[in-house]
From TrEMBL:
Protein known as: FAD-dependent oxidoreductase
InterPro entries, per the entry: FAD/NAD-bd_sf, FAD/NAD-binding_dom, FAD/NAD-linked_Rdtase_dimer_sf, Pyr_nuc-diS_OxRdtase, Pyr_nucl-diS_OxRdtase_dimer
Family: Belongs to the class-I pyridine nucleotide-disulfide oxidoreductase family.
Domain FAD/NAD(P)-binding: 8-310
Cofactor: FAD
């Protein structure tokens, strides 16, 4: 028999934005039903198979001593990571399911019409308002042999598998590819990154991307740029072309890290009249309303930047529509920082030097290698002096336009710079602030003294 639940708000997908919105709406007395397709995904990608396990692997890979067996250390690390993710998963589930106003259903959701959602075969949810928060999925490029090879893995396989690949090929030198390349190299794998573009980290300035590539190469990651992967032969041999010559590498695992696409395939959006863009994302306005105004889309599925904190900010916008003044929008976002967790991390915000030049605005650049920053003994204390810090500054106003920090603690430093940009704190003010000692922030005293 069909079981029908009535709700004020239905949330499809237990991602960051969906869970924050569900909790707040539940606290406000709304009857909320949240639907998640997998019982191993409560909390979404980030705590289960994304940010949290990968950053825990960064941590554990860095603690391996030269005499530790790579395989044993890896297995130990995966065990630790699985404990961590299961704690977070249970915490996420309980936080919502224990609320009187919220029901969590486990099953795949699809639209029946614009107010009705089917969950599996037996349950229907009828809701006034619907939030779609189904995230994204890896794109496996159409390379002959890749999809069928048992050696092809995704981020999900890599954070669950207990066998350290002796040899790993990573197709794609973006955020995901470089993080996994760095992690697995530090665990002891032989890693080759095959990037189609002339260089990795194509969105960053040349000097920053080159410095990052230099650190990875120094750690033993082989980076092949301008590589065209032709096929996967006999399941384990990656055939690629560079400069007109064919090369092969035989590997234990192949990670496709060539981007992630919004997860809409199972939703039957056509039944609800929700429009999707040419690139497969759910179309939204700046208030995250879809083509059906009572249906919102949050997080990766709406085609915005694919970061957990953007999904979180999406929930603020939707909550402002449903419970607040309805003013907040995606247009409010200024200086959104990001961090690539290689070792040391690369964190960036605002304009690159290339973008400032393209805009034709007067700017100056302040940059220094971390090893030369006298005001930052912390780099020497923690024995991580690799990298560089770079600021792009408006030559007329002294405002900071952007920064690229490839440095120990960069994932923390960048938030201070982002705040400075948002609040129009000048480079001089940032330079002349008083910082704790010994800290990494002290570097600003030095690098900004142009
Ligand atoms: C390996 C990796 C590392 C990353 N590292 C970082 C990082 O360090 N920092 C950072 O900010 N970002 C990172 N990201 C990106 C970040 O994880 C995503 O941007 C973020 O998790 C997106 O969240 P979301 O709210 O859009 O949805 P998600 O967290 O993806 O959740 C969507 C949920 O919807 C469920 N679902 C899908 N379809 C249906 C359906 N039809 N019915 C029911 N449920 C459904 C899914 O099972 C999933 O649980 C990383 C991503 C990956 C893959
Ligand atoms: N630390 C973080 O915040 C973090 C970590 C991992 C992932 N993410 C998110 O996940 C998203 C997806 O990551 P991603 O690295 O998969 O995508 P990406 O778009 O960041 O990078 C993809 C890379 O693959 C290359 N590429 C594409 N097709 C190729 C091919 N056929 N052969 C070789 N190279 C090819 C591209 O030139 C690009 O460099 C990121 O954009 C990011 O938003 C964030």
């Amino acid at each position: 028999m069909m079981n029908t639940l009535q709700a004020d708000v239905a949330v499809i997908g237990f991602g960051k934005g969906g869970k924050i919105a569900a909790a707040a709406l539940g606290r406000a007395g709304r009857r909320v039903v949240l639907i998640e397709r997998s019982d191993s995904m409560y909390g979404g990608t980030c705590p289960n198979v994304g940010c949290v396990p990968t950053k825990a692997l960064v941590h554990h890979s860095g603690r391996r001593r030269p005499d530790d067996s790579p395989q044993e250390w890896f297995e130990h690390a995966i065990g630790e990571v699985q404990q961590l993710t299961s704690t977070f998963r249970a915490g996420n589930y309980d936080a919502l399911n224990n609320a009187d106003t919220i029901t969590v259903l486990t099953g795949t959701a699809s639209f029946v019409d614009d107010h009705t959602i089917a969950v599996g075969n037996d349950v229907r949810v009828v809701a006034d308002t619907i939030l779609i928060n189904t995230g994204s999925e890896p794109v496996i490029p159409d390379i002959p042999g890749l999809r069928d090879s048992p050696r092809t893995v995704t981020n999900v396989d890599l954070v669950h598998g207990t066998q350290l690949p002796g040899r790993l090929a990573v197709i794609g030198g973006g955020y995901l590819g470089i993080e996994f390349a760095s992690i697995y190299r530090r665990f002891g794998s032989q890693v080759t990154v095959l990037e189609a573009s002339p260089r990795i980290l194509g969105q960053e300035d040349d000097d920053i991307a080159e410095a990052a590539a230099g650190i990875l190469a120094g750690d033993g990651v082989e980076i092949v740029t301008g590589a065209k992967v032709l096929e996967i032969r006999n399941e384990d041999t990656v055939v690629y072309e560079k400069n007109g010559r064919e090369h092969t590498i035989t590997v234990d695992a192949i990670l496709a890290a060539t981007g992630r696409t919004p997860a809409t395939a199972e939703l039957r959006l056509d039944n609800a009249g929700v429009r999707v863009s040419e690139r497969g994302a759910i179309e939204v306005d700046e208030y995250l309303r879809t083509s059906r105004p009572h249906i919102f889309a949050l997080g990766d599925v709406n085609g915005g930047p694919q970061f957990t904190y953007i999904s979180l900010d999406d929930s603020r916008i939707v909550l402002d529509q449903l419970l607040g003044a309805g003013k907040r929008s995606t247009a409010d976002r200024v200086a959104v920082p990001k961090t690539l967790f290689m070792s040391p991390p690369l964190a960036t915000v605002g304009l690159t030097e290339a973008a400032a030049r393209a805009e034709g605005r007067p700017f100056k650049v302040a940059k220094q290698n971390v090893a030369d920053i006298i005001a930052m003994p912390r780099a020497y204390i923690v024995e991580e002096t690799r990298g560089m810090m770079k600021f792009v500054i408006d030559a007329d106003t002294d405002e900071i336009l952007g920064a690229g920090l490839l440095s120990v603690d960069a994932q923390e430093l960048i938030n201070t710079v982002a705040l400075a940009i948002r609040h129009r704190i000048t480079a001089t003010e940032l330079r002349e602030s008083i910082y704790t000692h010994p800290s990494s922030t002290e570097a600003f005293n030095d690098v900004l003294a142009m």
